[in-house]
Amino acid sequence: MRVILDEEVYEITQAKPEDLHKVLELLVNAAAWLKTKRTEQWSYYLTDLDGNKEEILRSIENGATYLVKKEGQPVSTLTIENDPSEWDVDLWGEEAQDEVVYLHRLVVHRSHGGKGLGAALLDWVEKEAKEAGNKFIRFDCIARNEGLNHYYQERYTLKEVIHIHGRHSKYEIVL
Fold first, then answer.
1. Which domain range does residue 138 map to?
2. Is the pTM for the entire model greater than 0.70?
3. 124-132 — which CB contacts under 8 Å span 24+ positions?
4. Domain count, the chain
């Protein structure tokens, strides 16, 4: 699978357990950058990386985590879960159902930021989810992360802000 942007080719592959450190590096890079933007989004990757490895490894082992590479180097990662996690059930409640995929941990390394890769990956997720027969894509972010909320709201409608585990903005793409 691939994404082409301005004649640059990005390969999308399922992450393997031996890729865990590459996925973690991308998440830490994103969390460090977000900290400079004064947001708490993913701060736990900076304060408790070891405590979050198991969840990420489980997503990799389930075939839900992808690495995006340019010329063989990882530049992005994302996770597309077919089953709602405990987090998703907390946020979506009874709406956590079949024919839905949950998008988590979409990050683009800062060296590749601003090139449209995030938008291209969102398009790719929509295409893949629709082809798989899903009816919705759901994802969330911290409500105070103004930059990310603005980015999402350029493409999607904010479904609601919910007060569970802090304030979170919920987004739903109808396919």
1. 2-174
2. yes
3. 124/1, 124/3, 124/12, 125/78, 125/80, 125/101, 126/173, 126/175, 128/80, 129/80, 129/101, 129/173, 129/175, 130/175, 132/101
4. 1
